[in-house]
Amino acid sequence: MKYYYVYILECSDNSYYTGMTNDIERRLVQHKTKRSRDSYTASRLPIELVWHLQCTNPTEAIKIEKQIKGWTRKKKKALINENCQDLIAFSKNYTEFGHPSKRE
Question: Which structural domains are found in the chain, ordered by start?
């Protein structure tokens, strides 16, 4: 069975990079060896793999990658830390529910 991975790297400047690959070990080596000098991670080494998800469907992996890329840093950090409460709170629609600091 073929696997696809969605992953998050933490860079030396504390930023997060989200990507998708079908070979996570090879992809990490590419990031670490500056395969593409113009890439986001090339100027932010060292990097550390802080989260990954294994999928069997490439379409699903791409969908998840794009979803995570649109998240705030706080929400990504909640995912990395497996903090479900914060992940849910940071997912709330403020238009519908109001800002958390203004809720009772």
Answer: 1-70 (3.40.1440.10), 71-104 (no CATH)
